[in-house]
Amino acid sequence: MRELIDTRLDDIYADRTAHRLRLAKILPELAREFAGRHSPEEIRACADAILCRYDDAPVRSFTTILATRQARECLQAETCDALPAP
Question: What is the CB neighbour count within 10 angstroms for residue 34?
């Protein structure tokens, strides 16, 4: 285990698989809730940007819950700071 940490930790942190899985988990709910108010691309961009905030978190067990809540708040606001400017 020590060798794995010493030699592969950077590769493990760089792997985007967990990020993509979390994104796939939160997108359907957000897409249903904000269909008609935001395009699918905007919803995905918002959720992706917010999830990226947690990429360096040492413990990510609650990131899905937090990111969903933050994305919802962002998408409900008149302007979403996570979305790129039009």
Answer: 18
**pLDDT (tens digit, 9 = 90+) per residue, 24-77?**
999 999 999 999 999 999 999 999 999 988 887 777 778 899 999 999 999 998
Burial of 46 (0-12, 13-18, 19+ CB in 10 A): buried
DSSP 20-34: HHHHHHHHHHHHHHH
Q: Where are the domains of the chain?
A: 2-76
pTM above threshold 0.90 = no
Task: Please give the C-alpha separations between residue 38 and each of 2, 24, 43, 56, 81, in angstroms, as whole numbers.
Answer: 46, 18, 6, 28, 14
